Amino acid sequence: MSDSIVRVKVNKNEFTWDKENGLFSFDGAPALLFWDTAIELFIETIMEVSGPDVSTTVFEATGFRMGKLVSSYYKDKFDIEEVFTQYSDIYRNAGWGNIEVAYFSLEEKKIIVRLKNSWEHRIFKLLDKDQASVLLPSHWAGVFSSLLEENMWYKLTKNQLAGDEYDEVEIFLSTITPNQNIHALTRQKEQKYIQELEEQVDNRTKELTSLVKTLSTPVLPVLQGVLVIPLVGKFNDERMEDLMQKALFEFTKQRANYLLLDLTAINGFDEYVVDRLQKLVKAVELVGGKCILVGISASFSLQIIQSGVNLKDIPSFSTLEQGVEFALEQTGFELIKAK
């Protein structure tokens, strides 16, 4: 039974393998062993799925919380003076690289840690990345946040991947926390998502506006030289401007002689609409054509009379058929019923 438990002691650190139950522990705490290449794949997957901004925040938050966890496990076992030596042994013996606390000031609340051949450096080197370490620097910020019971953060002053002899991490008092970084990133993502939605809505609105313009003022050729535009709904400045441009463009393009404006489905036939229609009539006359109003019902004609609008100079008919017949007569054609 004793052969099922294997213990190896390196300095003051004890590694224990429980072969019968398939368990491994480091200084009495359950632990796992991974190859660097396995961690490389794990890190690479996070970076690929999350992107650079999100993955950096994930690494920093994870490292910081791991540091606080490690510190809470060991801080009752060592005095603050012993911590630096003991932590150096612990991390080295666990394969995390060589760690040196180069500077410590309790008064300044400032620590400088040097990391050489850390596992994070090894992983980023395998990935052929120029990215500076983030997980282990934030890890040490978490360690000293717990030890000193202060809010600490870090900055990387030297980078082994960039050619320095080691990674140098300065730990200092700060109002920055991983939680704030996560919230800031979340807000950034939300703002980006909202911006993307607004752009989609804006693009969709432009598409729908274009579609509405096309459908609301279609120019329909009826016979040679005769065009019809049905006016549907309520018209504002934008729709009237679109009507004017489209009518004149199609009228000259198709070399028409008559433009029939069908008012059957128009809403709000007031002085504003009449004024714009009269301008359209004059514009068509300037390019050598003539406008005809059709779709004038009895109630509509009464409304026009009561409004005081003068349309006597514009040919008007109650139906589209009458307007088309009039236009044909003016051009020398007539509709004959086939026998």
Structure described in brief:
By secondary structure, the protein is α+β, with helices and mostly antiparallel strands. Helices cover 49% and strands 22% of the residues.
Describe this entry's structure for a reader.
The chain is of the alpha+beta class and 339 residues long. It has 4 domains: 1-33, no CATH class; 34-176, Trafficking protein particle complex subunit 3 (Muramoyl-pentapeptide Carboxypeptidase, domain 2); 184-216; 217-330, Transcription Regulator spoIIAA. The chain is built from 10 helices and 12 strands. The protein has helices spanning 36-50, 52-74, 80-93, 119-126, 135-148, 178-216, 237-253, 271-286, 298-307, 320-330, and strands at 5-10, 13-18, 23-26, 29-30, 98-105, 110-116, 152-158, 167-173, 220-223, 226-233, 258-266, 290-294. The strands form 3 sheets. It has a 4-stranded antiparallel sheet. A 4-stranded antiparallel sheet has the order 5-6-8-7. The mean pLDDT is 84.
